[in-house]
Amino acid sequence: MILKYIKQLSLILLLFFTVPSLVMAGDATERIKVISDNIFSIISDKSLQTAEMEEKREQMIMEAVDSGFNWEEFSRRALARHWRKRTEDEKKTFISLFRQLIKRTYMDKSGQYSGGKVEFLEEKIEGEYANIKTRLTSSTGTQTSVDYRMIKKDGVWWVYDVYIEGVSLVSNYRTQFNDILINSSFEDLLNRLKEKVETGK
């Protein structure tokens, strides 16, 4: 099933929807904290919790997520060798569908993600790359390790991969996309993503 690991992405948003309990010094870690604080303030804003404000609230949340995630870098790494074969229009379409898929699948759950906490445990910097180690504790007490891989572009840190309990989301996508593209076409992959976005299944 395409994107069978996408449910793990809820943990990415869950991290952003929780309140940091420990913040280490460092520009990369601070980037994650700023995004987390921004999103938490949005979902906690009672004026945005009415039905008529739902669309605006979702838009504000996605804009906040967009401010920290480099979707092009994420997409390029997920498609791997297939990326360079794509036209610019195909790349743009793929990136757009990926972003819509995340919105479609998880935005409705955003209200469930408050009440937990995240600890920033360690920040490792190697040149233009950073690894931010965190531990997420849900409101029910379940703990999950979530590590952010970041890249610095034009002086700004961006998330390009997330490891959940040691498993890379990019690697999971890469395996699934590669299987599809070996046995089918890029158009078929796009159609599957479109169907996922439209149906939410």
List keywords for this structure.
alpha+beta; 22% strand; 201 residues; 7 helices; single chain
Strand residue percentage: 15-25%
Count of folded domains: 1
CATH architecture field = Roll
Report the major sheet.
6 strands, mixed
Shape, principal axes of CA atoms: globular
Structural class determined from secondary elements: alpha+beta
Spatial ordering of strands, largest sheet = 1-2-3-4-5-6
State the end-to-end distance. Answer: 10 Å
The tally of helices reads 7
Description:
The protein is α+β, with helices and mostly antiparallel strands. The protein contains seven helices and six strands; from the N terminus they run H-E-H-H-H-H-E-E-E-E-E-H-H. The protein has a six-stranded mixed sheet with strand order 1-2-3-4-5-6. Strand 3 (129-137) and strand 4 form a beta hairpin. Helix 2 (27-44) runs antiparallel to helix 3 and helix 4 packs across helix 6 (169-183). The longest helix is centred in the middle third of the chain and has 19 residues, at 88-106. It is globular and about 45 Å long. The model is unreliable at 1-8, 19-24 and 108-113 (pLDDT under 50).
Explain briefly what this protein structure is:
With 201 residues, the chain is of the alpha+beta class. It has seven helices and six strands, in the order αβααααβββββαα. The protein has one domain (6-199): Tgt2/MlaC (Nuclear Transport Factor 2, Chain: A), CATH 3.10.450.
